[in-house]
Structure formats: C-alpha cells, structure tokens
C-alpha cells in the first residue's frame, strides 16, 4: 500500500501528470497517452464511480450511448460475464463493493480493448467472486487482450500474471516473468520413519547438505533438489526410510519479503 501503483496507472491513462520522466503507451509518443491510444484501452482505477440512482444496466447503456463503445448486445453479454445479470436492474447505490467492482470491469470491457488496465479488481469480493474474476482475467489474457493488473494480493498475482513488476516506495525494484522470479529453492521438506536419527545421519555423512532443521513435524533440508536421491540412499543404508520428500518452492510472497525485507512502506509512513 502506498507504493505508487494507482499513481502509475493514473499517469499511463493521462489522469495524473508526471513530475518527471517519460513513458510510451501502445504506439503513442513519450509525452503521455494519445487520444488514439486511449480509445484502445479499457480501465478501472480505484473505486468504480457510476450514477447511484441508475441501475447497473442503465449506467452501462448511458455510458455506451455517449461514448459509442461497442454494440447494445454487448451489455447483456458483459453483465453475464461478470456475474451481474440477476442484479442488472438494481440501482447502483444498492450494490455491494464487490458488485461495484464487477460493474467497473464490465464498463472497461465495453470497447473490447487491446489493453485492459485494472486497479485492484478483486477488492471487496468474497472468495468465490475473487476466483471468478481471476478466471476472467486469465481468459482475457489468453484471448488476445493485454491485462495490466495492480494488486497487493500476491497469491492472486502469482496465479494470474505472466510477468510482474514490484514497486516499493515509488521505485521499481524488480521486474520479469513470474516463472523466473518464483523459482525452486535449494531446499527439501523431508519426513522419515525416524526424523531425529535421519537428521543426525544427514549431518554426519552428507557434507554437501548446508543445513538440517526440524520444523512442524518434518525436516527442512537445505540441499540441491537434484541430489535428493543421494539423501534417500544414505538414509536407507541406515534403515531409515523416507515417507515424504517435497522440494520447497519460493512463493511470490516469499520473494517479495526477501526483496523488501518486509519493509515496503512509503517514505512518509516510515518517519
């Protein structure tokens, strides 16, 4: 929170003027988004705002009428896509926060954009709704759209995104494919028929093992996963048998905390 995600998206959309620096969006220039580029973008930034006294359906019809985005038939399809068909006739002011988020996504999709910019799209959703929106974002990405997602829910980002950028205190501190940043650690979770003896054997006979520790009913063995067979062989010689051995994976949350030291507050909140 406070790292600059929404501000960055607002600059890309021309809602906030940068104090310095340049950027290029689609095939526009480096001084800000062009009108042509903005017509190819759908976006929802921060809390979606609609007319409170109109229904969700009426809001989309009104916006479509003044913006000439898409066709009338698209509205019903999009309301169904975001799960609002049953409440399409209800006034916007009666919507929950999650429903408002869904309507915002439907609005962003009205023009079938090349680039979809979503700022915290699952904010306020229950677990089932979050799963549905994640599935929607995945299908949009696989269907030829580019989806730029802002979120501090790292498990959500890890499930949905192909590439990530991490902001901390307004600065870009990491960037790249999720598959490269979230990689396999040199560690194993091991459970045996005798963990106490297994730890002793590993420490005394396997010098390439960096560390062995007992954690939550299993052994955490710091060693290359590709040498796991040597570990099981050494234990079997001592008639200790492995019942479970799993490589420990680095999650995006682990990577983020390691990168930031768990200290990613903006500078003004550090004082």
Please tag this protein with its features.
271 residues; alpha/beta; four-stranded antiparallel sheet; three-stranded parallel sheet; 12 helices; elongated; disordered C terminus
Report on the architecture of this protein.
By secondary structure, the protein is of the alpha/beta class. The protein has twelve helices and nine strands. A hairpin with a 2-residue loop joins strand 4 and strand 5 (171-177). Helix 3 crosses helix 4 (72-81) and helix 4 (72-81) crosses helix 5 (97-108). The radius of gyration is 25 Å and the shape is elongated.
Task: Give a quick summary of the entry.
By secondary structure, this protein is α/β, with parallel strands linked by helices.
What's the SSE blueprint?
Elements lengths: L4 H8 L22 H4 L2 E4 L11 H12 L4 H10 L15 H12 L6 E5 L7 H16 L3 E5 L3 H7 L2 E6 L2 E7 H4 L2 E9 L2 H11 L5 E5 L2 E5 L5 H10 L4 E8 L2 H9 L6 H4 L1
Parallel strand pairs: 1-2, 2-3
Antiparallel strand pairs: 4-5, 6-8, 6-9, 7-8
Helix pairs in contact: 3-4, 4-5
